[in-house]
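seq as requested:
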Amino acid sequence: MQSSSEGNVPLVSSGKLRARLFVHGRRDTACMIHCVLAEPPQPTRRQTLRWAGAALAGLALPLRANADSVVLQGARLTADFDPVAAIWLGYDPGHATFTSDLARILMPYLPIKMLVRDADAQTRAMLLLRSQGLDTSQVPFVLDPRAPFFVRDGAVFGVDGKEKPFIVDFQWTHYGWTNWCHRTFAGSGAQARACARTDDLESGGLDQRLASALGLAYFSTPLAIEGGGVEVNGRGLIIANAALWCERNRGQSRAAIEKLLLALPGMRKVVWVPYGLAQDPLHRATITGSYVGWGTGGHSDEFVRFADENTVLLAWVDEVDARSHPVARLNQQRMMANFAALSSSTDQRGRPLRVVKVPLPRIVERAVVLSADADTAYSNEWTAASFPPGERRREGDTVMQLATTSYLNHVLANELVLLPTYAAYGTPPARQDEVRKIYESVLPGRTVQFIDAMAANWVGGGAHCATLTEPVARG
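struct tokens:
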């Protein structure tokens, strides 16, 4: 999932970055991250103040969890439906409109925090929020040169037995980038090696640095994944997309991956489902025929989500859509297989899972012409070089790009349920109203609102991807 451009603004380079980092007002090259309180910045000065984090002062825990650490005693990964202390947002100029919409909708319900790349990004983000009439005086910012726009994928939160937050340190693979390179250029070892790159330690250590900045413990695991692929009920059960977890952890058997999943804090059971959405392929790739997409390779937050400890929401395909579109037919086959797996499974207490089907929106697609001059920082510019030679794509060919659209990429923010809207993109209003009623039924007492997330959908993202849930601390 990339921070691709929206409108005419290209994405900020994800290459290695160097930045001046400060501790107590002075430069410290050993520190990779710092926090600041959102004081009104002066456009001519890039000066930041250290955020003391008074609200987190009581949360200091050992930096690295181990078998004897208090963090593991009663610890658990938290669910999205659990109480939320704050929601984090990122910033990228290509997604500025989406960011301002998210902040405008979320801020009345809970505090907002922001994870951005540098002081310039902080200034731009604050000016953006202020343009919407939002008060930024109490918005904390964490600055890190490797901060992603899709902050969900940068960290996974949990709480220990005393309900103090910690962060799980998963391994970073840049969404399986090396695997994509070797798959795309399977016939040319030189091209595959040139494409493949191992992200630097700064990128892979973002979750550790965020934990350090917030004074939290982190629990390290050898498993590789992003936050959008971690779906838990907060009580010891995880739903894992087998295709995704096995792709991210090449060389590991599913049994070995399950053993490592069960070693995560508080994890008691794994329920495997076989597939993700068809229009969420690994990076830029062919889905079927002339249909292509840009995605994560099967993040669970696109198709399967917990509504409570025992209730699972599953994306479902309308029969008319399945008859009329080949990708919808693929999704129908995949979701039926997922339904069979879920409906025959039990939760961590041995109770059958309650599976609720949530209609998928209509397929959203656009024609793009492959070009050697394509600037792939833009989501609607594609080149034949993005496909394996065996597919025989040529510059000048027209392909149909599909957006990764799904109502399941929602945000839960205490009393708020934030859903993507597709009414303006061909989905019948009656279907979207049906979706709203489903959410009101499974998440009673919450207000349902909608947001346009299409710019993020074109690069495999959405509202859930662009937010990071920080659990409430107790004790």
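The mean pLDDT is 86.
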